[in-house]
């Protein structure tokens, strides 16, 4: 991915990893990423979800949407690796307009963004991977099975052989729409003309 920055974001209030808060951070993060892409600040990204460590001083019940006592443990947030777009400076580094992005994050309903330039790409990958592994064994992971723990948005620039193309559609839709199939199982993972019933 060759990331340039590590970015961390969260909601502007205490927010634990509940279904409602996960949905909210997803929508608000999408708005910020669209802003960054529209202004050609971002080429690709990946993120991993984390719920911060519990604070032993917190006396709040897990049924709440977040901490109400002020101890603010277990804060839901996301860590991003960002590959920037745009031109690089003389040293070959790309930069981010921090103040503009903080304002955009506020308009999107997010808290303060934290940016760290990446010095070691291997170190950054290990840092984010640590959170990916951490979320597997938490009670949050089992309670929120349908929620994403990570995501990638990396353009695939791999050269393709002539005649091959990629489509985000289901196999069944591609087979019927583009390849002349008549009957295809909706959940098929592959299709060929030999699989067509006679």
Task: Tell me the layout of helices and strands.
Layout: E1 5-10, H1 19-38, E2 42-51, E3 76-84, H2 98-107, E4 114-117, H3 121-134, H4 139-143, E5 150-153, H5 171-179
Antiparallel strand pairs: 1-3, 1-4, 2-3, 2-5
Describe the protein in words.
The mean pLDDT is 82. The protein has two domains: 5-153, no CATH class; 159-192, no CATH class. It contains five helices and five strands, in the order E-H-E-E-H-E-H-H-E-H. Strands 4-1-3-2-5 form a five-stranded antiparallel β-sheet, sandwiched between helices. The chain has helices spanning 19-38, 98-107, 121-134, 139-143, 171-179, and strands at 5-10, 42-51, 76-84, 114-117, 150-153. The termini are far apart. The longest helix has 20 residues, at 19-38. The protein is of the alpha+beta class and 198 residues long. The radius of gyration is 21 Å and the shape is globular.
Q: How do you describe this structure in short?
A:
By secondary structure, the protein is of the alpha+beta class.
Low-confidence stretches: none
**H and E order:** EHEEHEHHEH
Mean pLDDT: 82
Which structural class best describes the helix and strand composition?
alpha+beta
Biggest sheet record: 5 strands, antiparallel
Number of structural units classed as domains: 2
Give the key terms.
29% helix; globular; 17% strand; 5-stranded antiparallel beta sheet; 198 residues; alpha+beta
């Amino acid at each position: 991915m060759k990331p340039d920055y590590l970015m961390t974001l969260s909601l502007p209030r205490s927010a634990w990893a509940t279904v409602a808060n996960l949905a909210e951070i997803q929508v608000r993060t999408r708005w910020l990423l669209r802003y960054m892409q529209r202004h050609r600040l971002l080429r690709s990204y990946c993120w991993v979800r984390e719920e911060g460590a519990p604070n032993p001083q917190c006396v709040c019940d897990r049924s709440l949407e977040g901490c109400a006592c002020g101890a603010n443990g277990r804060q839901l947030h996301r860590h991003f690796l960002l590959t920037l777009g745009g031109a690089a400076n003389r040293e070959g580094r790309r930069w981010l307009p921090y103040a503009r992005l903080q304002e955009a994050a506020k308009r999107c309903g997010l808290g303060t963004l934290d940016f760290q330039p990446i010095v070691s790409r291997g170190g950054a990958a290990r840092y984010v991977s640590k959170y990916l592994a951490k979320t597997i064994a938490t009670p949050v992971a089992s309670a929120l099975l349908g929620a994403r723990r990570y995501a990638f948005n990396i353009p695939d620039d791999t050269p393709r052989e002539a005649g091959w193309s990629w489509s985000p559609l289901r196999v069944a839709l591609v087979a019927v729409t583009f390849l002349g199939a008549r009957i295809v199982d909706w959940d098929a993972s592959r299709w060929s003309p030999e699989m067509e019933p006679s």
